[in-house]
Amino acid sequence: MSASILKRLPLEMFWPTFDPFLFCAFHNDKYPEANAEMGPAAPLVGRALGQDFAGLDGWRMYHGKKIPGFPAHPHRGFETVTIVNEGLVDHADSMGASGRYGEGDTQWMTAGEGVQHSEMFPLLNEKGPNPLELFQIWLNLPSKNKMVPPHFTMLWNEDTPVVKKSDTKGNETTIKVVAGPLSGITPAPCPPNSWAADDNNHVAIWLIDLPEGAEWNLPAGASGLSRTLYFFEGENVELDGTKGLINEAFILKSDADVTLKNSGKKARFLMLQGRPIAEHVEQHGPFVMNTRAELQQAFNDYQRTQFGGWPWSRHDQVHDKSKGRFAKYSEEQES
């Protein structure tokens, strides 16, 4: 195995992550045509509604019972980064903010001191399939920022830079830069209290598409970082001469470059990188703190305040099917 690869691990539904990242889920659902209520026009008999993760017929309802997705639930002490490659997500939260995003957009939400939100997947096409592909990544917050006010930022697809690199044969690799500079290109700012907001933490989130026959050199980063490359689509790739297997994670030496070669159909990768926060983590479900006492306080606070309550008429809140992509922030600023 190449010296640039420290370890390799299989990918299951929840991918292995390393400090400062807490969690990474890849949702790839082939939803059928929609019904009039923005749910699947298909029988739901035989599904564990409210807890449907089985992947029957290639799609899941997750915690939704009529519309797939994740109805209202709380978070405290970390951030969610949701990258939607295909399909749509409807956002609503306890701050009164809302949005519909997808088709390449990213939502970056700082839970901080506590927020409730829902993430539903409205199906809008009543005449054909409704594919959904997204990543949800949990990025930890350092102790000093655990209790900052909640906040979310939209990184719209059209504002997210894509770096294109051609090899000697003219094959063009594309790298979508959600976070972390590449080749002099810097993406839009993330939320101000994020671990990624400090350049010294070298947080990078890149989506890499390597066409058939292409070769690309993943440049070295700083030393001492967590750097993981997830190979989630494709056939025959090599990393510095080491054959890569589909659905595999490669933990890389962060200060070494790695040559990626693809001899099969288009290969796709997600790369997560960052300087470890290196603080003790206590986690229970949607709360991530530093001590057991803080974790218990999170539960107590949520039971007492509901993190601001739920201002929406339904816990699986979806927006009017005629609306396009939008974001309405709690300050009533809409874009």
UniProtKB/TrEMBL annotation:
SUPFAM superfamilies: RmlC-like cupins. Fe cation binds at H73, H75, H117, E119. Residues 208-308 form the Pirin C-terminal domain. Coiled coil: none annotated. Binds 1 Fe cation per subunit. Residues 61-139 form the Pirin N-terminal domain. It comes from Marinomonas profundimaris. One of its GO terms (molecular function) is metal ion binding. The keyword Chaperone does not apply. InterPro entries: Pirin, Pirin_C_dom, Pirin_N_dom, RmlC-like_jellyroll, RmlC_Cupin_sf. This is Pirin. The keyword Metal-binding applies. CDD domains: cupin_pirin_N. Belongs to the pirin family. Keywords: Iron, Metal-binding. Its cofactor is Fe cation.
